[in-house]
Structures are given as structure tokens and as C-alpha cells.
Amino acid sequence: MPSITPITLYGPPVLIALALIWGFGRILYLRRTAGVSVLAVLGRKRNPVEAGAGVVALVLNLYMIARPFWPSLDDRLMVQPFAYAHWGVLLMAIGILIAMISQMDMGRSWRIGLPEELEEDQPLITGGLYQFSRNPIYVGIMLFLLGSVVVAPGPVTIASLVLSWIFISLIIRAEEDFLAREFGEAFDAYKARVRRWL
């Protein structure tokens, strides 16, 4: 039976911490330098899909952070050790890196949640990683989730992957409706040229 290594046990919490530090830092940076409130989701009531995605993310992150400090947690949650779990940490890191680069590619247009309306001078982003995928941030998130399944294959990670796929697919549809309404033909042309995922 494969054993849990330090990288598969401590790697995910470190990556989660780095992603959170990056995210909060990016929010503060955009607020201070561009006067942008990234948290568009706070400007309106959160819908059930966004709330569900948030709960799934919270549960998965808490589980991954708790694993090193509660050794019996994996047994209680029926996690099956996997010989190639270290590759899962690499997938998680690549996912976070893709999400970070995608946020930078969006510049001051990056938002968490859909705003009520497009802000002045907010362009349609089609460069950087957005020339390969219309949703590279979500591609990064899904790679992170797939990596978590490889690191700790069990009900929590598998459910997180499946539920996140469902929630993210619904969020993408809402975002695409918003972009089609705000950018019209420009978004239609972009949509025809670049795939939703990869």
C-alpha cells in the first residue's frame, strides 16, 4: 500500500495558502492602484449556484488543510492512498498557476462574481491565456480539483470535482449571457474563435 509523503500531505495546504495570499493581494492591488472593487459578488445577492460553489470550495480547502494535523481524517473519509499522489500536487500547482496568470491577463477587468453592468472602459479580454480558452481561470480551478482527487482519492475530493464542474458550468453560462449582452458581435466572434474550455 502506498504511503502518504510529506509533499502529498503538506503540498496542498501550502498551495492553498499561496493561492489565498495571491488572491487577497490581487484584490488589494486592484483596489489601491485602479480603484476597482473586484468583489462584484458583494454588490448584489449571491445566487444559489455561486453559494454552492463557495461551499464546495470551502469544504475541500478545509479538508486539505486539516489532513496534516488530523492523521486519521483520511481513514474516516475513506481515502485510498495512491502511488502517484505526488503528481496530483503538481496538477494542483499548475492549476493555481493558470488561474493566477489568467487573473493577470484580465488586468483591471477581473471580478469575482458578475457585476450588475459593465463598468466604463472595461474591455472584452481576448489575449494571453484567453486566446486559448474563454475560461482559463476555470480551467485552472478544474486542474486544481483533479489534482486534489489524485492526492487524496475519496468521497470529499471526488464530490468536490463533480459538484464544482456542475456549478462552474452554470456560472460560465451566466457569464457568457452577460458578455453577449454587453459586447454583442465582438463576443460572438470571440466565442466562434475560442473554445469554452480548451
Q: What does the model show?
A:
The protein is an all-alpha fold and 198 residues long. 65% of the residues lie in helices and 0% in strands. It has 7 helices and no strands. Helix 4 runs antiparallel to helix 5 (136-151).
Summarize the structure.
The protein has 198 residues and is mainly α.
Keywords:
Four Helix Bundle (Hemerythrin (Met), subunit A); mainly alpha; elongated; 7 helices; 0% strand; 65% helix; 198 residues
Q: Radius of gyration in whole Å, from Cα? A: 18 Å
CATH topology: Four Helix Bundle (Hemerythrin (Met), subunit A)
Strand content: under 5%
Distance between the termini: 36 Å
Classification by helices and strands: mainly alpha
Number of separate structural domains: 1
The largest sheet, given as strand count, sense and whether it forms a barrel, is: none
Q: Output the CATH class name.
A: Mainly Alpha
What string, H for helix and E for strand, traces the elements in order?
HHHHHHH
Shape: elongated
